[in-house]
Amino acid sequence: MVQEYSSDPLVGTLVDGRYLIQSRLASGGMSTVYVATDRRLERDVALKVLHPHMAGDPQFLDRLGREAKTAARLSHPHVVGVLDQGEDDRVAYLVMEYIKGHTLRDVLKDRGALPPRLALALIDPVVEGLGAAHEAGLIHRDIKPENVLIADDGRIKLGDFGLARAISTSTSTGALIGTVAYLSPELVLGRQADARSDIYSVGIMLYEMITGRQPFDGEVPIQVAYQHVNSSVGAPSELVPGLAGELDELVQWCTANDPDKRPVNGNALLSELRHIRRNLSDAELDLQPPAAHPSLPPVPPAPSPPVRRPGGGAPDPLAGDGATEVIGGRQQPTEFIARGNNPTTVMSAAPRGHGYGPLSAPDEVEYPGNSDDGPDSAVPASKRAQRKHDRDEEKARQRAAATPVRSLREGNPRRRGLLWILVLVVAALLAGGAGWFFGMGPGSPGTVPQLSNKTVAEAQQLLRAAGFQSTTKDVYDDDVKPGLVVGTEPAAGEVIRKFLPVSLSVSKGPQLFPLPQLTGKSLDEAKTALNGAGMALGKISETFDESEPAGTVLAQAPRSGNPVRHGTPVDLTVSKGPQPIPVPDVRGQDQADAVKAIEAAGLKAVVAPVAVNDRKVPEGAVVAQDPASGNLTKGGSVTLTISKGPRLVKVPSFIGKQADEAEAALRELGFDVQVNDILGGFFGTVRDQDPVDEEVPEGSVVTLTVV
């Protein structure tokens, strides 16, 4: 960031009671751009302050205000936001989003020609922002690398939207504003600008990004403007061998002389731009442009536009009817080109600094017009010297002819004496009158009294008592009650002549603004809307809501539409989403009881269509559930699997078999086995079995009697 000048009187001051100026970013002939802190919303902004010669033009301020409001309605991530505009004690200002970083011009200066992949990636967000503006009915009119801001975090934004129109309407009738290197032919010819004019400028900028140079060059800007009208932009591949033909077609489509042959708006260009990016190969996208072009001829200087000469030929539309005044410079300033019967003037307004494009009215450098022998630059040095000598002699003769060498009437001494007496008397009367006027009369000095917080009647009476006349004007004020005096102009304590009027600023109370509708928006969208409306974010509370997803604003206080002051905190109630419900464990419960328990928790019980056998869970009870634990939201489903009880298994007869063999077989069938030995079970043979040859539930006890 450019360090501020210690002598700048605005650095460290508070503008409009809100913007604390921290440092100076850039300066031009029409404005200075500062970094300022918005004390109401506690954020850094870019504050553009107009110089007094512009701030004193009511028509310009009115136009700037309307254009700023139009630009402020455009909210897009790739467009620098216009946040505020106003006047404070003869300081007219515009507040914009502060983007800390550099410009596309800085990238081109550092790197020169860019690989197609990087060039397309950098211009994509520019075209996207331009498309959104065109969709909203806004035309930029001054697309150039200086107005493409690249933030330190990689964000790319297009700045100074709509301001060219405001400046151009403050110039003389028929003037246009734009940067001559990027100016469309229709603007040069004084025709109506539309979205296709911006597309032309984008095409010129893309040509420069790919090749490292602009398609048209000239000794003076008017020559470049002439080429825009009378020449066609060449293919970039002429300077970058191997460049994909699609890129040649894209650039020449955008820069067609006929607006009807260009993309209709930014969105149409964006669609084609992204199609080309997707379909070019990696080799075509990563083509490295040559660092220099020694084998290529330089771009020829522009031919001078035809001018009217004595005795023949109609003038070119660019030439005007007289001499041409230009200012040199090989950067890309914003130029004013005046038309009509006055001399054509191209004035540089190059911003110096951060890339916010301060509105600047430049100096003018006059170049000699035409003479009978042609321009001075085409005349030999000896003949130019002779011309200058002749002009000097002619001026000397004219001055000598205008100086009288003898009085036509000599007069007489008495008449001269009476005349001197009369002169002295008149002088004495004038001196006395002036002494009274400036000593005790209306011209005497007086101190403006302190009138703040007084009624208008009280203030006017005090001013009359002090010898002043007063006027009133109504102003908004957040602190002074309506009907009371906010302050005076000149301020209280200043010493002025009493014939000068004192203006009373009378409070209308605070200026109120309607609150935006925030309910239904996400929390981030609500914050952005509050920021854009100049309101503050109040307390955020969260609550569960069954219908709105988490992060959605459910309510706001004060409600939308209520008129409130700027900076009013707005409390938000935000959804946490549906409330989680713990899943109850109903395993082992009877089906009916389990269903009631699930539904009582606000969940939905779903019974599995197939029951299963279970040796431990009785028939009709819940043997399993899904999910068995955790949380669900209201109305979530829990699937219950019902038990059919243990399955029936036929008990085979093991009488006469060995006890060990019988016990193992029965256990394998799912039975519990009880062995009763008789006489110690000496033989180990099953003498009896209970039950035998019957179907009994799995897990039943089978008793073996062993001898």
Give the structure's gist in a few sentences.
This protein has 707 residues and is an alpha+beta fold. 28% of the residues lie in helices and 23% in strands.
Largest sheet: 6 strands, antiparallel
Q: Can you give the helix content as a percent range?
A: 25-40%
Overall geometry comes to elongated
Helix-strand makeup class:
alpha+beta
- By CATH, the topology of the largest domain is Transferase(Phosphotransferase), domain 1
Strand % is 15-25%
The overall strand count is 34
What does this molecule look like?
The protein is α+β, with helices and mostly antiparallel strands. It folds into 6 domains: 14-97, Phosphorylase Kinase, domain 1 (2-Layer Sandwich), CATH 3.30.200.20; 103-348, Transferase(Phosphotransferase) domain 1 (Transferase(Phosphotransferase), domain 1, Orthogonal Bundle), CATH 1.10.510.10; 446-507, 2-Layer Sandwich (Trypsin Inhibitor V, Chain A); 512-575, 2-Layer Sandwich (Trypsin Inhibitor V, Chain A); 580-645, Trypsin Inhibitor V, Chain A (2-Layer Sandwich); 648-706, 2-Layer Sandwich (Trypsin Inhibitor V, Chain A), CATH 3.30.10.20. The protein is 28% helix and 23% strand. The chain contains 17 helices and 34 strands. The strands form 11 sheets. Strands 1-2-3-4-6-5 form a 6-stranded antiparallel β-sheet. Strand 8 and strand 9 form a beta hairpin. Helix 4 runs antiparallel to helix 10. It is elongated, with a radius of gyration of 45 Å. The model is unreliable at 1-6, 166-177, 292-333, 335-355, 357-384 and 398-410 (pLDDT under 50).
